[in-house]
Amino acid sequence: MRTHGLWDKFPTVQSKLQEVLNVIGEVIDSSPSPVKDDLKNLYCNSGKLLRPAFLLLSATAGEEVHPHLIEAAASIELLHGATLIHDDVIDRSPLRRGRPTAYAARGAKQAVLTGDYLLSRALELASRAHAEPLVKGLSESISRLCLSEIRQDSTQGEFFIDREEYFRRIQGKTAELFGLSCFTGAVLSGVNEEVSREFYRLGIDFGMAFQIEDDILDYGGNGKLMGKRTGSDIRAGIPTLPLILALEEGGAFLQKLCRYPWYILFPRTIGRIVLSGKGVAEAGKIGKEYRQSFLERLDRLDFPDKKVFRQLVETLVNRKS
Predict the structure, then answer these.
(1) CA atoms within 13 A on the CB side of 169
(2) What number of other Cβ atoms are within 10 A of residue 285's Cβ?
(3) Helical (H) or strand (E) element with 270
(4) Cβ atoms 240, 230 nearer than 8 A
C-alpha cells in the first residue's frame, strides 16, 4: 500500500503515513480469511489518511514523542474503516473508493462482522498507547458515532429536518473522528488537558467543513473521482445541507419529490432543482464559516507543524473528490 498523491507535497508527513500504512498492512496480513480479503479490498486504495495525518500533525504540540504514536494513528484509521464498512451496510452502498463494498460482495451479515472485527483491532492498537485520556476520548467518540448513526437510520427517508439537527448528526458522524484525531495527537505529545481540548475543537471545526463540502460534492462533484455516483445521499434517503436549505426556500414540487417513494424514483430531478437554487451556494458559505473558525483557532495555537496544517487544509478546500 502506498500513500495518496496528496502527500507528495508534504514529504515529512508522507513518510510517517507510510509507517501507518505498514501497521495497517500487518493487521490485514494477520487477519483470518475471509476477513483478510474484505480488508484488502477496502485498503487497496488507502484513501487520503486525513485522520491519522491530523493526529501526527497535532502530536507536535508538546515536547514528548510517544513510542506508540504510529500505532495510535493506525488505530484511528482502522476505526474510520470500521465506520465505512458499517455505513455501507446501512446505506446499501455498492461502491466505496471505486470498488465493490464488503456489503455488495458478501452481504450485510458478513460485512457487519468484518466492521466489528476491524473495530476490535483498532481498540487493540489504541490500547498500546496506555494513555488514560485517550481511552476515555475513544470510548466517548465511539458512543457519539453510534448515536449519530442511530439518529440518521431511524429517520431514513425523512428529508424535512432543520439545519441544527443536521449539524448534530454530522458532528457525531464525521467531525467527531477528526476531533478525536487532533485530541489524541495532542494528548500523546504531553500537553495539558486545556490545550488537548482546543485541538479537539480544531478537529471538529475542520470535520464540519469537510462533511459539508462532501455533501455539496454529492450534487456537483465528479463521480469517477469520488468512486461513487453523485446523488447517492438522495437515493439513500439521507438529508444533507444543500437539500435542507433548498427545502427552506420553499417550492411545492420539490417538497413533493422529497417524500417516499418519489425521491427514490427521481433523484436526478431533485439534484437539478437543488443545483438551480440557492441551496448549494448557501451550504458553501456555511462550510466556509467552519473553515474560517478552524483557521482562527489554528492561529491561536503554537506548535511546529502549524504551517503544514494550514497548507494541508488550504489544499483540501478546492477538492473534487
Answers:
(1) 21
(2) 11
(3) helix 267-276
(4) no
- Extract the C-alpha cell encoding 74: 493506525
Averaged confidence pLDDT in the chain: 91
- What are the tens digits of pLDDT across the range 187-209? 999 999 999 999 999 999 999 99
5-317, CATH topology level: Farnesyl Diphosphate Synthase (1.10.600)
Domain extent listing, the chain? 5-317
Taking the C-alpha atoms of residue 95 and residue 229, their distance in angstroms, rounded to an integer, is: 9
Residue 279 buriedness (CB in 10 A; 0-12 / 13-18 / 19+): buried
Question: Under DSSP, is residue 100 helix (H, G, I), strand (E, B) or coil?
Answer: strand
Count Cβ atoms below 10 Å from residue 98 Cβ, excluding itself: 14
Q: Which residue has the higher pLDDT, 225 or 11?
A: 11
CA 260 to CA 154: how far, in whole Å? Answer: 15
Distance CA 182, CA 176 (A): 10
Contact 21, 7 (CB under 8 A): no
Asked if 72 and 134 touch (Cβ cutoff 8 Å), the reply is: yes
Helix (H) or strand (E) segment spanning residue 298:
helix 279-300
Residue 97: pLDDT band with limits 50, 70, 90: confident
How confident is the model over 260-288, as a mean pLDDT?
94
Residue 95: which H helix or E strand, with range?
strand 95-96
The answer to pTM > 0.90 is yes
Which residues contact residue 22 at a Cβ distance below 8 angstroms, ignoring those fewer than 6 apart?
none
CA–CA gap between residue 103 and residue 106 (Å, rounded): 6
User: Distance between CA atoms of 176 and 178, rounded to whole angstroms?
Assistant: 5
Instruction: Produce one character per residue of 130-155: b if its CB has 16 or more CB atoms within 10 Å, e if not.
Output: ebeebeebbeebbebbeebbeebeeb
Cα–Cα distances in angstroms (integers) from residue 212 to residues 130, 137, 140, 244, in the given order: 34, 24, 23, 12
Closest CA to 183 of 223, 218, 138: 138
